[in-house]
Structure formats: C-alpha cells, structure tokens
Amino acid sequence: MIRLYTIFFAVVFICISGCMAKVATLPPGESKSPGSKAEKSDGEQTRQMLAKKNQDARMLASLQITKQAQSLLDQKNPDYAIRTLERAISLNPAAGKNYYYMAEAWIMKDNAKQALEFNRLAGIYLKEDDAWMQNVLQQKDSIEMMNVD
Q1: What's the pTM value of the predicted model, to 2 decimals?
Q2: In terms of C-beta distances under 8 Å and separation of at least 24 residues, what long-range contacts does 56-63 make, across chains too?
C-alpha cells in the first residue's frame, strides 16, 4: 500500500512539474511589466511617427493659410491678412515667411513698430535662406524709413 502511495505521489509530482510553465529569469534591473524597454521603444517610435505626421499636416495647413494671406495682401486687405497669418503662425510658429508677410500687413497699416517686430522674427527664422534674407533686409529698410514711435 505504501508503495502504491509512493507511485501515486511520484506520478502527481511528475505531472505537476511537467505542466508548470518554465519561468524565465530576467537580468537584474529589467522588468517584464508593461512599459518595459522594448514596449517603451515601440511606444516611443509610434508617438514620434504620429507627432511627425501631425507636424507635417500642421505645416501643410499653415502653408495653405499663408497663401490665402498673400492673396489678401495683394487685395490690399491687411486686417484680414493679419487674422489669417495669426492662424498660420499658430499652426507653424517656425515658418519665417508668415512673419515676413505679417510685417508687410503692418506696413500697409502704417504701424512701423509692429512691422519691425515681425520683420525681426522673420529674420530669425529665415536666416538660413539667403534669398529670403534679402527680402527681410529690404523690408527692414523700408520700415526704418517710416516714422517709428
């Protein structure tokens, strides 16, 4: 009878130990919990990709709005051009051309102080573009010829 119990317990032990999943050990400092390095890397890549797509969409929308503002300036409508350019700047604050056109709108309104400030910002963002910097410098000269308060 003891032999039967021994065989029974041996079979149960073998079955239990064979059914248990092998637990992998991780090196110290690593965790298998959500947010582990691999998951963070994948999550970070996804966030960066979505941010890039969002940025591209904002840049495209800003460019389209800037074209609308240029048309408004051509029509000698600086008030609506300013409102339009404010939207373009809010979508893409690093687009120096928006500041240049904003300065143009303020020149049309005979506000040299505002024009000079937007011209300064255009110079900051367009300093790497030689052709646009020519425009910015010419614009600055015309602003300085106005009566600055």
Answers
A1: 0.65
A2: 58/91, 58/92, 59/91, 59/92, 59/95, 61/91, 62/88, 62/89, 62/91, 62/92, 62/95, 62/98, 63/88, 63/92, 63/95
